[in-house]
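It is worth pausing here to work through a concrete case rather than discussing structure prediction in the abstract. The textbook approach is simple: state the sequence, then state the predicted structure, then interpret. We follow exactly that order.
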Amino acid sequence: MSFPIIGLVGSDWAQSIFQDEANKLGIGIKFASSPISSEGLIAFAQGCAFVCVNPASIEPSTIKSAERAGIEVYPSSKTLEQLSLIDKNNGSGELLSILIARSAHTQVASWPVTLLTEGLTISPLPGVSEEQSLEIQLYALKLAGEIDLVGGFELIVDAADYKNLVGINWLTPLARFWTQIGSTTNYFEQYLRAVLDLPLGSTEITSAFTVTGKLKSDPASDDYRPYLHLMARNPNLKFDQSIKQVAISGSELESLLTEVIHAQQYYSGEIEE
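Step two, the predicted structure:
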């Protein structure tokens, strides 16, 4: 059996991260940018085992046209139609991220629930019992089965009521960075394993907590200078300039939050030490 070639229609950033993960798996992957026409998608898919898309930036009719032409698309039009029946509402405050992956053979995996708050993510969700966390994850896993998900998605739900669905992300989740440094298998590798119908990887966390924070540039400086202070202050900090985020993992949540918030303030020029 030869390694398959898959197609992916998405943003430049999505293309970059999925290329890295495809290289590690030895999978061939080719890219197209959205928006894309039905004719363009059908032509692009030639030679691909299947095509993955971000349905937020592609017309449902385009996906249906490709499927009628015999092309396998993830997520499928059937999955998207079922999701369209679910009411979405605005969150009332803090939000939760629930990441799920599911393969064609119905193997499923989920990551610990993440809190999204004020430019930060905290994983796992603090102050919640194991039973409550499991209840939230089971809700998302049940939904993934009901819509016959193949691949992965991120459910954004209201922290005050996890059954209040706020939004869905596919190729680039909001809580993407923490899985790259705080989980045995990151979201992007898992997504590829799911659509390829490979056995899914472990989503075990590698530290008690991982905190990430959005970075804002200092208008009076460049983005390179803050590294000198921040990396010296704490060599455990991880940066991703492609998405302007900083992260750290460890066992003491309060200390982690202190480090990330300090990094955000120093990076933006709000503080000078």
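Step three, interpretation. The two ends are 57 Å apart (CA to CA). The longest helix spans residues 130-146.
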